[in-house]
TrEMBL record:
<keyword id="KW-0889">Transcription antitermination</keyword>
<dbReference type="InterPro" id="IPR004087">
    <property type="entry name" value="KH_dom"/>
</dbReference>
<dbReference type="Pfam" id="PF08529">
    <property type="entry name" value="NusA_N"/>
</dbReference>
<dbReference type="Pfam" id="PF13184">
    <property type="entry name" value="KH_NusA_1st"/>
</dbReference>
<dbReference type="InterPro" id="IPR010213">
    <property type="entry name" value="TF_NusA"/>
</dbReference>
<protein>
    <recommendedName>
        <fullName>Transcription termination/antitermination protein NusA</fullName>
    </recommendedName>
</protein>
<dbReference type="InterPro" id="IPR009019">
    <property type="entry name" value="KH_sf_prok-type"/>
</dbReference>
<dbReference type="InterPro" id="IPR036555">
    <property type="entry name" value="NusA_N_sf"/>
</dbReference>
<feature type="domain" description="K Homology">
    <location>
        <begin position="307"/>
        <end position="409"/>
    </location>
</feature>
<keyword id="KW-0694">RNA-binding</keyword>
<dbReference type="InterPro" id="IPR015946">
    <property type="entry name" value="KH_dom-like_a/b"/>
</dbReference>
<dbReference type="InterPro" id="IPR058582">
    <property type="entry name" value="KH_NusA_2nd"/>
</dbReference>
<comment type="function">
    <text>Participates in both transcription termination and antitermination.</text>
</comment>
<comment type="subunit">
    <text>Monomer. Binds directly to the core enzyme of the DNA-dependent RNA polymerase and to nascent RNA.</text>
</comment>
<dbReference type="Pfam" id="PF26594">
    <property type="entry name" value="KH_NusA_2nd"/>
</dbReference>
<keyword id="KW-0806">Transcription termination</keyword>
<comment type="similarity">
    <text>Belongs to the NusA family.</text>
</comment>
Length: 410
């Protein structure tokens, strides 16, 4: 058959892309019909026979025999004398089927046809990949590091599909080398042009939830439910778990003896500190548990403003807030309530608003954002943590501390 290179191209893609026979036939027929339309103006009277297994293809043009000189449409009609060159017994009104050789389409048309074929197969392949990964959104996936860029890591899976993990989707402590196998979740899949863009994430809270499912049998089996996960990637996470079976301790099952079960998850996340909390619909108790490891004295909830005032002994305040404010921030995200920390014996303390004549209001608000609304709460707080948790300069914080100290020295 003419233009063997075209058919060989078809065979190569058939083997490489593993496209099913029916789809290949449809792609080939579409490509050739487009070429016929351009050449003859219409493809309605053409039959295309594709044999993907053998890698060959036949095109037949069907025309009606008309008397010499009566041909109105050369694509659909053929003169009697021309018909009898094919077979000498044709008569007017009969149908003639004549094979169209690829060479008749012209060299340019054949080259264009080949490019169109390649394009259509790639387009089909990309659509299949897009659909495949779209169904995997939110699922755990493993791929190999292929290339490391400044703003992203490029990974390839076993089928050679490219997966991108941007810098902000990585755990800050992540360090990769070419050839490393990396686990994450398929966070999003989009079609950009005709090419699927597959984004992997290790920073998404869902990644931690999937790790619980893969590492803890009771979670995988549904005996324990992960109710909610909140994270500061690489730093700290809180996971609320529940069980409908009273015989199962969900926290104990997730942590394991001496932390044996959760250790692998912590290691996967770059030693991220994970608090596993027993979920409850009792909001007061849930907030108390969420502030672990701090021991809460009492909780006052305002459901309208979604705020909770938590009273703690002075020595428990720093535990509740945590290094860099991570603990109280995650507790708020987990419970859905803004948490204000107050110390026991606050009557002996002084509200920060009492110093509004010496300290500007926006500075007082900065301290309130991290749960510090009294003079003693600021004075008892670690200076470095004040610097890291607020948007205040060191000199400003030092000045505030001096003002507050004077109050108690007096």
């Amino acid at each position: 058959m003419e233009n063997l290179a075209l058919i060989e191209s078809f065979s190569e893609f058939k083997d490489d892309k593993q496209i099913d026979r029916v789809t290949l036939m449809a792609i080939l027929e579409e490509v050739f019909r487009n070429a016929l339309k351009k050449k003859y103006g219409s493809d309605d009277n053409f039959d295309i026979i594709v044999n993907p297994d053998k890698g060959d293809l036949e095109i037949w043009r069907n025309r009606v025999v008309v008397a010499d000189g009566d041909v109105m449409d050369p694509n659909e009609e053929i003169s009697l004398s021309e018909a009898r060159k094919i077979e000498d017994d044709f008569e007017v009104g009969e149908d003639v089927s004549e094979e169209v050789k690829l060479i008749q389409l012209g060299r340019r048309s054949i080259l264009a046809l080949r490019q169109n074929l390649i394009s259509k197969i790639y387009e089909h392949d990309n659509t299949i990949i897009y659909k495949q990964f779209k169904e995997l959104e939110g699922d755990m996936y493993t791929a190999e590091v292929h290339h490391i860029r400044h703003r992203a890591v490029i990974l390839l899976d076993d089928d050679g599909n490219e997966i991108i993990m941007p810098k902000d989707k990585q755990i800050p402590s992540d360090f990769f080398r070419k050839g490393d196998n990396v686990r994450g979740i398929i966070e999003s899949v989009e079609l950009k042009g005709n090419k699927p863009s597959i984004i992997m994430s290790r920073a998404n809270p869902l990644f931690l939830e999937r790790l619980f499912e893969s590492e803890i049998p009771e979670v995988f089996d549904g005996l324990i439910t992960v109710k909610k996960v909140v994270r500061i990637p690489g730093e700290k996470a809180k996971v609320a778990v529940d069980s409908y079976d009273d015989r199962i301790d969900p926290v104990g099952a997730c942590v394991g003896m001496k932390g044996s079960r959760i250790h692998g998850i912590v290691r996967e996340l770059g030693n991220e500190n994970i608090d596993v909390i027993n979920y409850t619909t009792n909001l007061t108790l849930f907030i108390t548990r969420a502030l672990s490891p701090a021991k809460v004295t009492s909780v006052k909830i305002n459901e309208e403003t979604k705020r909770a005032e938590v009273i703690l002994r002075p020595e428990e305040v720093s535990k509740a807030i945590g290094r860099g404010g991570h603990n109280i921030r995650l507790a708020g995200q987990l419970t859905g309530y803004e948490i204000d920390v107050l110390r026991e014996g606050a009557e002996e303390d002084v509200e920060l608003t009492e110093f509004s004549d010496e300290i500007e209001g926006w500075i007082i608000d900065e301290f309130k954002k991290i749960g510090l609304d009294t003079a003693k709460s600021v004075l008892d707080y670690d200076f470095k943590d004040l610097v890291s948790r607020t948007d205040l300069e060191e000199e400003t914080i030092q000045e505030v501390i001096s003002i507050l100290k004077e109050e108690f020295e007096d």
